[in-house]
Design a protein that fits this description.
It is a single chain. By secondary structure, the protein is α/β, with parallel strands linked by helices. The chain has helices spanning 17-28, 40-52, 67-81, 104-132, 153-173, 197-206, 213-224; strands at residues 8-12, 32-37, 56-61, 86-89, 135-140, 177-184, 234-237. Strands 3-2-1-4-5-6-7 form a seven-stranded parallel β-sheet, sandwiched between helices. Helix 4 (104-132) links the parallel strand 4 (86-89) and strand 5 (135-140). The longest helix has 29 residues, at 104-132. It is globular, with a radius of gyration of 17 Å. 45% of the residues are buried.
């Protein structure tokens, strides 16, 4: 299936930021959405907004650190719409801090959400894609995985791990599945809310020239809309002012 219209797309981290913008754009272009996030009130509001505009969407509370929640997300897509064409693994946290602070709980949360959450999504969707003979994984990574800087060691590590796994998945996928990695730079979201104050001050300065989440959504849509047999492997989207 080429293009976006009619495709069944599941999005994690859909409650705000890039996930919300992606859901809105894909719905506008005719996709059928299955939305997952932890904040159910945001999912309800987003689903209602899509449906009011004439789109199709369903939602389910999804904590990507729970494998069963990803299974539930994929199951909902199959029950409501009859299958799943694309899984956008977008949920992520950036609890950035100096390693000397020894915020081990934060490190573990980033590993659980940013890395294991993607793996759980693969585990839930891959058998469905194999059964269908088609499917597309879109994994949101970060330019932090391309240019490692102080305070972002663990965060960048999780993102680089997803990049590596995605490339391995692409090579194992064969000629019927597609895998795309999208690496945003600074994006205007609520990403900095839980950061170490030192890190937050640095990131907030970057936000002065940050992208709108819509810019990343358009990149995701570009990968999804390509004809069958065309695999857009890696997209980097960052502000022109970002180093």
């Amino acid at each position: 299936m080429s293009g976006i219209e009619g495709k069944i797309v599941a999005v994690t981290g859909a409650g705000s930021g890039i996930g919300e913008a992606t859901a809105l754009l894909l719905a506008e272009r005719g996709a059928r959405l299955v939305l997952g996030a932890r904040r159910t009130e945001r999912l309800e509001a987003l689903t209602a907004r899509i449906q009011k505009a004439g789109g199709q969407a369903a939602w389910i509370r999804t904590d990507v650190t729970r494998r069963t929640d990803l299974v539930g997300l994929v199951d909902l897509a199959r029950e409501r719409f009859g299958g799943l064409d694309v899984l956008v693994s977008n949920a992520g946290v950036g609890l950035i801090s100096p390693l000397d602070d020894l915020r081990v709980d934060d490190w573990e949360e980033m590993i659980d959400v940013n890395l294991k959450g993607v793996l759980y999504g693969i585990a839930a969707a891959l058998p469905v894609f194999r059964e269908q003979g088609s499917g597309h994984f879109v994994n949101t990574v970060s330019t932090a995985g391309l240019r490692v800087v102080p305070l972002q060691s663990v965060y960048a590590g999780t993102k680089n791990a997803v990049r590596t796994i995605s490339e391995g998945l692409r090579q194992e996928a064969g000629d019927s599945l597609r895998v795309t990695v999208v690496s945003p730079g600074a994006v205007r979201t609520d990403f900095t809310e839980r950061m170490d104050p030192q890190a937050r001050a640095r990131i907030d300065r970057m936000m002065e020239t940050a992208l709108s989440p819509d810019a990343v959504a358009r990149a995701i849509a570009f990968a999804i809309e390509q004809p069958d047999g065309v695999d857009v492997g890696d997209i980097v989207v960052r502000p022109t002012a970002q180093a």
